Amino acid sequence: MKKHRRSILSLGAVLLSSLLFAAYLTSLQVTPAEAGMADAVIYDENGNLIQPKDYVWRDWIYVGTPITPNDLNPPEAPFPEFHNVYIDPEAFKHYKKTGNFPQGTVLIKELVSVGSKQASSGKGYFQGDFIGLEAAVKDAKRFPDEPGNWVYFTFSHKAPPYPKTANRQPTAACNTACHQELAGDDWVFTQFYPVLRAAKGKGM
Amino acid sequence: MKKHRRSILSLGAVLLSSLLFAAYLTSLQVTPAEAGMADAVIYDENGNLIQPKDYVWRDWIYVGTPITPNDLNPPEAPFPEFHNVYIDPEAFKHYKKTGNFPQGTVLIKELVSVGSKQASSGKGYFQGDFIGLEAAVKDAKRFPDEPGNWVYFTFSHKAPPYPKTANRQPTAACNTACHQELAGDDWVFTQFYPVLRAAKGKGM
């Protein structure tokens, strides 16, 4: 009877261990948002970039917002909207640690209209509504022949819902036309992104 | 001998259980970023707001950036910088679900200089460097007598490192001077924050 009780105790303890170990392993799993990059870079069978789902970039790291409005660039600016730019969390972590953008880096650029130009705080530019979504991806394996291994995708230049997939832009449209020569750091316009400049190589 | 071995086995299993359980508990602890609001709202013994640590707002939800530059508000704008505004993740979750800002909501406003006004993309405003940090907190329990229960704190109007604590601004300086009458939703200028407008009451 005593032996039997001990065996049950042992068995119980082992079962409890297994259960707790399983729970521990489950707790280690990363969410899509935490996975960041890995989850973001998915392509369809035609090589089109699939949209990072559920507006996941709202959980990414915001890096900066340039604005080149129409009224300062008559008759019409090439990019009249606010560009709210985000980087995936894994790439940001790597950039902080090493000062370099890792393979698989994704930057999302959400376009926002100029909503108003006057408020109680003065004359200026105030964000209106979402009117587009673009992405830049660095991937030497997938894009070995692109300058810097960066490719630029346009989901939409219209209000949401954004299309699920984005075609690659021609190399000449974004890469060699601007980013290759003028971007501050590895095809990224870090000169306009204080978050990236402040973080570069500063550790985890 | 056999009994002895069984005892050791039992003891080992129990120890393993405890160890794994401890590991599981540790894994359940939330990081400051995950804790969001709860971690953000800490005050010193004088009631000054303590700075959300380690730039935790980089993991918060970016909501928008107004800009009212000097050259559009001669001779000098009251707020000549970019204002990059973030909300703590818990409050954002609540706002998405209910359409209301919960008690404990924290908004961080990071001031960024106008770095340049000309780039390959045209004339406009491009973010320079960080030059200040402010916060708004909604807390009916702590601020029962403030309009809307919102209080405004200024950490710094200078470059980082920002001071660790921030004094409350007088009610007349931010609250009744602007936010109370002119903010779009509950003392928050949601009319300039497309992320909040798009999320309001849209579910988890």
Give the key terms:
7 strands; homodimer; 2 domains; Chalcone isomerase; alpha+beta; 204 residues
Would you write up a description of this structure?
The structure is a homodimer of 204-residue chains. The first copy, chain A, has 204 residues and is α+β, with helices and mostly antiparallel strands. The first copy, chain A, has 2 domains: 1-29; 32-199, 3-Layer(bba) Sandwich (Chalcone isomerase). Chain A contains 6 helices and 7 strands. Chain A has helices spanning 2-28, 32-35, 37-40, 89-98, 175-182, 194-199, and strands at residues 49-50, 61-64, 82-87, 106-119, 122-138, 150-156, 165-168. In chain A, strands 1-7-6-5-4-3-2 form a 7-stranded antiparallel sheet. In chain A, strand 4 (106-119) and strand 5 form a beta hairpin. Chain A is globular. Residues 21-36 of chain A have low confidence and may be disordered. The interface between A and B is large, with 59 and 59 residues.
